[in-house]
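Predict structure. Chain length: 267.
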Amino acid sequence: MTAADLAQSISRELPYLRRYARALTGSQTAGDNYAAATLEAILTDRSLMDGEDTRIGLFRTFHAIWQSSGQPVEQETQTPREARAQAHLRGLTPNSREALLLRTIEELRYDQIAAVMQCPQAEAEELVQIALSEMGQALSGKVMVIEDETIIAMDLRGIVQAMGHEVTGIARTHSAAVELAHQKRPDLILADIQLADGSSGIDAVNELLADMGDIPVIFITAFPERLLTGDRPEPAFLISKPYSEEQVRSAVSQAMFFASTEGLAVS
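Prediction complete.
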């Protein structure tokens, strides 16, 4: 593969590396910094990509950097919420969240996860099951759904409730979302991008965050690459339409780790 071909191939995969990194760190800034470090490593040593499927080589290089940094991320300045979240993350089985995200959000096969994490396939499969168990039982909280399609909204509510969370309600428009959030403050928001009246789920969320402070948000969109450019403020948690139940469960579990501990119940 020529340098130009490699650069083009990496460019296609980079948005999804950002998605993975943001979900892993709970932060656009931290996630994008890790993605940038991955690119720098490849530019310094192109042999990291030799003989590899581009996606696997890219994610494997990221994972090596992530491991060498002593994950989870220890930032010089952390809010109390971030410090509590990182302390909680340290209590999980090492590498389990990584395997879960690779499987559910990035939809890698188990043999591909094993190649990324440089471990036997059986270990990759076991790590995913451990993560599902540990994270599924860890926290419960209040979730608001912003979605204009009735069937999807009901499906999301069912998935979230089955996980043990309370759904505060479903909003179909920007104004309804603002009103609902003020009636009962959520610990997490699940939001579609385009709403029924032509309003934007992003605008609704931005208004809520400006008014209510830091609340984790999972955006659901048919065009995830548009929100994974790294050029502007973008979501830390993002899943694609059409989604699977496994993807929603994983994203909700990840995001809850970075939610305020106020109001959350530890199972």
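Summary: Confidence is low (pLDDT under 50) at residues 260-267.
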